[in-house]
Amino acid sequence: MAPTTTTAAAAAAAAEQQQHTTRKVLGLAAHDASGHLTPIRISRRNTGDDDVAIKVLYCGICHSDLHTIKNEWRNAVYPVVAGHEIAGVVTEVGKNVERFKAGDSVGVGCMVNTCRSCESCRDGCENYCSRVVFTYNSVDRDGTRTHGGYSGMVVVGERFVVRLPAALPPDRGAPLLCAGVTVYAPMRQHGLCEPGRHVGVVGLGGLGHLAVKFAKAFGMKVTVVSTSPAKRQEALEGLGADAFVVSTNASEMKSVMGTMHGIINTACASTSMNPYLALLKPKGKMILVGLPEKPLQIPPFALVAGGKTLAGSCMGSISDTQEMIDFAAEHGVAADIELIGADEVNTAMERLARGDVRYRFVIDIGNTLRSD
Ligand SMILES: NC(=O)C1=CN([C@@H]2O[C@H](COP(=O)(O)OP(=O)(O)OC[C@H]3O[C@@H](n4cnc5c(N)ncnc54)[C@H](OP(=O)(O)O)[C@@H]3O)[C@@H](O)[C@H]2O)C=CC1
Ligand SMILES: O=C/C=C/c1ccc(O)c(O)c1
Ligand SMILES: [Zn+2]
Ligand SMILES: [Zn+2]
């Protein structure tokens, strides 16, 4: 009996300790692969010495949130509180925090911790850390599960928090924290930011519409490659794209064949790479950022014959993120959004699944979900 009593006492002590070191916060959680979201009370750690406590004001809905809550990547551990496009205001900082103070406008993106010692971390590419801790559906270094921005507040280590300039409206700025940096970082790293060059953007959704805006801000020629003829006018007149082709229209695709220096492929569901690779010039690059549920089909000749490159890219580093935010504020780049209340989130997920959004849903957490 003694070990059982000891174990029970230890568990009670741990639970009591836990109560003193955490607080309860309201969030929106998926509980199974239906992806249906309902209110939940989650624990957030008290503000540690290196932490920034943030009242969430706005959180964008990324398609990765939808892939995750529906377990399309087969890695969901329920309950899942998604959200990694977080814009908010600092409420409290730990004693070692130097860059932020209460009242500051800040953002948090896709990651909230890393190992800090691997080659990627040492090189400032912590988005490729082998032990990266994602903002939600991940296990933090202290063993607790991470929960994202579909919640009233978050507690995040200072090094994973970025500053939001006053020139950037926080509701339209929130989607930059994932969608923005995910397209900006590879465009910069692969030279798809040189004025006069021709870039294709596959998939005109949350990521794609920001890729168009960044490419135009870089001074590039932009062609949108879309499955949705209805987006033509918006792309050309609203977003400033130079051309628009429908990927199922053979003559439109032929008209841009072999013309692109690079492509940012943001499609959430297309798996056949052949039609897109054909649009590249010889030695052109296609950067894949979309993460469809199913494996890709890549005929070898589509790559080899033209000496083409197919690369992947995941999120961006924290320094990429701050650079992108500052660039966006300076050049007037922000997301086109549909602002919704917390009670509309399930309808928004259904609409996102069928591509019915212009171009990012953002949840008005601050006004529609309690932070305590
Ligand atoms: N690599 C990374 O770090 C990140 C990856 N992602 C991933 O990027 C993808 C896009 O995310 P997001 O922009 O939020 O998603 P959205 O749903 O907003 O946009 C995706 C777009 O893909 C296009 N699309 C949909 N179905 C198909 C299809 N069958 N064939 C071709 N195109 C299709 C649609 O554009 P259209 O109507 O123009 O055809 C749609 O608007 C997701 O898979 C997401 O998980 C997201 C963030 C970071
Ligand atoms: O929306 C961004 C998600 C990126 C991502 C990349 C890789 C991975 O394993 C994830 O769970 C998320
Ligand atoms: Zn995302
Ligand atoms: Zn690391």
Automatic annotation (TrEMBL):
One BP annotation, GO: lignin biosynthetic process
Keywords: Lignin biosynthesis, Metal-binding, NADP, Oxidoreductase, Zinc
Pfam families: ADH_N, ADH_zinc_N
Domain Enoyl reductase (ER) stretches: 35-363
Pathway membership: Aromatic compound metabolism; phenylpropanoid biosynthesis
Catalyzed reactions per annotation: (E)-cinnamyl alcohol + NADP(+) = (E)-cinnamaldehyde + NADPH + H(+); (E)-4-coumaroyl alcohol + NADP(+) = (E)-4-coumaraldehyde + NADPH + H(+); (E)-coniferol + NADP(+) = (E)-coniferaldehyde + NADPH + H(+); (E)-caffeyl alcohol + NADP(+) = (E)-caffeyl aldehyde + NADPH + H(+)
Gene Ontology terms for molecular function: cinnamyl-alcohol dehydrogenase activity; zinc ion binding
The protein's required cofactors: Zn(2+)
Top-level EC class as recorded in UniProt: oxidoreductase
Listed EC numbers: 1.1.1.195
Domain of life, per lineage: Eukaryota
Family: Belongs to the zinc-containing alcohol dehydrogenase family.
Quaternary data: Homodimer.
Record protein name field: cinnamyl-alcohol dehydrogenase
Organism: Oryza brachyantha (malo sina)
